[in-house]
């Protein structure tokens, strides 16, 4: 096993804090000459197209639109196998260069950002294959760079009535979703990454060792759940290369949009609908300003009111209709108007696309703005 300072060198746990003030690089890291040697060795091990120090590439992998301070990495490396990741980790440890794993690059919180210590960015995008599909067991093995949207597209193309329900940003990768403990609009029905959606993983540790967190067996009382150590660890404990995920039945859904006189009214309606037991898959609040940005971004014109975007899910049309009836009654009780249900799948996709576009619509209306992630208890909004 590696010494503690080796672990720090890989994960950046001792990196200097991000601030506007000029800071000195932590002595745990290598010297500029060490960094240069590390890059030379990476170039000797990997094909030229898989190692880049191009400023544009470094910048694209080191920052996004979030508010956190960020810096470009020293080098971006694209592994294509677990063995490649081991090689990168061993080189980083040898020269004491920090490593940051890069999945889909969709994080607003800055999980893949570079720091003023710079270092090696491990771009997992080339490790995106679906390796095994076990329909009878409702699970799937994929490489960590696979995107949840692509996995669901593969299942749909094969006509398999299953899907992976966690749905953070479009383009998020499975490895990144585990590392950040992701959520998504489906969390109302299916929970977050902290649920049992990730069954096991192959992980390259800071020492360069490769472990598998558990076997495929769904029920096993022996030992502790090692995968939980890596869930939400943001890459500080290792880099995942393969993951087994659990799939859910793909049930029929209906999409609805309803407007309210205020955020408080919309929040009270959502709380009552959830507590009433309406079988909701998603319920998302877009305030009046967000609806205004959508009108400037999309061809469709929306009422510029505080609105709920809702998905109802059920095994039968009768079940969905009953849930819709209850939901409509609850919404009207709290001042809901213009209750719109999608009649077809195409209409449902159009309605829900507005929810997915809301982030980009906000940026389009306020160029140069920074994204700030917030979490507020729904009961607090209704106060």
TrEMBL record:
The keyword Transmembrane helix does not apply. GO terms for cellular component: mitochondrion. It is found in: Mitochondrion. InterPro entries: FAD-bd_oxidored_4_C (IPR004113), FAD-bd_PCMH (IPR016166), FAD-bd_PCMH-like_sf (IPR036318), FAD-bd_PCMH_sub2 (IPR016169), FAD-linked_Oxase-like_C (IPR016164), Oxid_FAD_bind_N (IPR006094). It comes from the Eukaryota. Signal peptide: none annotated. Belongs to the FAD-binding oxidoreductase/transferase type 4 family. This is D-lactate dehydrogenase (cytochrome). It comes from Phanerochaete carnosa (strain HHB-10118-sp) (White-rot fungus). The lineage of its organism: Eukaryota, Fungi, Dikarya, Basidiomycota, Agaricomycotina.
